[in-house]
Amino acid sequence: MCYLVICDCPRATNEALVDYQKSVTLAPDVQGAIAGLAITYHAMGNVDEALKLWEELIEKDQRYMDWEWLVEEHHWLPPLVDEARILIEKLSNPS
Fold first, then answer.
1. How many Å apart are CA 23 and CA 27, to the nearest integer?
2. In a domain, 5, yes or no
3. How many separate domains does the chain show?
4. How far is 70 from 65, CA to CA, in rounded Å?
5. What is the pTM of this model?
6. What angle, rounded to 10 degrees, do the helices at 31-43 and 47-60 form?
7. Residue 1 falls within a domain, yes or no?
8. I want to staple 50 with a disulfide (CB 3.0 to 4.6 A). Which of 8, 36, 41, 45 is the partner?
């Protein structure tokens, strides 16, 4: 599984996107891959796609609304958790 480290490096982010897309294609039921793809989309500014994927995760497992659980479950670095918290906030308080 690849891990995206959110940075100001478009090449690394694009590589993460390709890796997560492949992961989801090969294993569409692996929630960690779907979460990583959603986070990557969000980091790249594709908010609608990120929210759509995150909503699908929540339908399968409500714990995806809990960023603290994400830290424990996925061992994400703070920048990933920050992106997840933003997604969770957007879904909790739609405008």
1. 6
2. no
3. 1
4. 9
5. 0.85
6. 160
7. no
8. 41
